[in-house]
Structures are given as structure tokens and as C-alpha cells.
Automatic annotation (TrEMBL):
<feature type="region of interest" description="Disordered">
    <location>
        <begin position="96"/>
        <end position="117"/>
    </location>
</feature>
<dbReference type="InterPro" id="IPR023869">
    <property type="entry name" value="tRNA_Adeno_NH3ase_assoc_put"/>
</dbReference>
<protein>
    <submittedName>
        <fullName>Putative tRNA adenosine deaminase-associated protein</fullName>
    </submittedName>
</protein>
Length: 161
């Protein structure tokens, strides 16, 4: 499985970002330490982690220097098949629904987590949920919307080239 992950942190009105390797992540502290360190190095305390796995699912993690990470998974059922999603789910206190039975048609995703983690960046909980379950909307497209609203779309585009 191919996973794209990048952390972004604002410094005033300017965002900085870097692609990260989450292959050795076993606990959420590994993720949040990386995120907070990145933010602090850039003079802030907020960071966002965007994760996309093979156009199957995406995750968003918001970390701040003095708070618990906030996690959103586009489809909580993936925790049964993907170790990284399981780590994120445990950290966010998400409930993992039963895995979907493969009976031909792919069932709708089951988003879970803190849907309000991007409200101050212009994406409401309802909109995030709608993007997560919308037919034909790829996870990479949702991350592009997040990046556009937050103000780091060009950074994300450059990483994906």
C-alpha cells in the first residue's frame, strides 16, 4: 500500500510543509512529536498532518503543542486492514466498525473522528463528512480542498508532483 503523508504548519500567514514517512509509527506519540517539533521549528504551535492511502481513505491529524491530537478518518473500517489507521483510531478514541463484507458493491465509507478539527480553517464538520462519503470524490481531492481552504494548496501540489 502506498501512503502519502505530509505535515504542514503555519508561521503567521505563511504555511510550511514537508512530506513525512510514517512507516515505523507504532503509537500516536511518534506522530504528534514529529508534528509538534515541525510546528515549533517554524515558530508556531499548530500543525496538520494529511494522509492519503492509495485513493482508498484519508486521515487528518491536528496537533498543538499543549493539547491532545485531534483525528479524523474518512473511513473507520480501514483500521482492520491498515496499521497506521489503527494507531490513529486508538489515539482519537474512534470506534472501529466491523469490516465491510465484499459482496460486489463497495459500501459507503464510515467516517469517524473529530469533524470539527478544521472549522477555523473554513471546513465545517458537515462539509468534511460530505466530502468523505461523496461518491466519486477521491481522498486526494479532499486533501486538495483542505489545503486550498487552509492556504497551502500550492505546497501540497508541489509535493504530489
Amino acid at each position: 500500500m502506498s501512503i502519502f503523508a505530509a505535515v504542514f504548519a503555519p508561521n503567521g500567514k505563511t504555511w510550511r510543509g514537508t512530506e513525512v514517512d510514517l512507516g515505523d509509527v507504532d503509537v500516536i506519540d511518534d506522530v504528534t512529536d514529529l508534528m509538534v517539533d515541525f510546528a515549533v521549528e517554524r515558530g508556531g504551535d499548530l500543525s496538520l498532518l494529511l494522509i492519503e492511502a492509495d485513493d482508498e481513505w484519508f486521515a487528518l491529524v491536528r496537533a498543538e503543542e499543549d493539547g491532545e491530537p485531534r483525528v479524523y478518518l474518512s473511513d473507520a473500517r480501514v483500521v482492520h486492514d491498515h496499521a497506521l489507521a489503527a494507531v490513529l483510531s486508538e489515539a482519537g478514541g474512534l470506534g472501529a466498525p466491523q469490516p465491510a463484507e465484499s459482496a460486489g458493491a463497495r459500501p459507503n465509507p464510515a467516517p469517524d473522528g473529530d469533524g470539527r478539527l478544521l472549522t477555523d480553517l473554513g471546513i465545517t464538520e458537515d462539509e468534511l463528512r460530505s466530502l468523505s462519503v461523496g461518491g466519486g470524490v477521491l481522498p486526494s481531492d479532499v486533501l486538495a480542498v483542505v489545503a486550498e481552504r487552509a492556504g497551502f494548496a500550492e505546497l501540497l501540489d508541489d509535493m504530489r508532483l
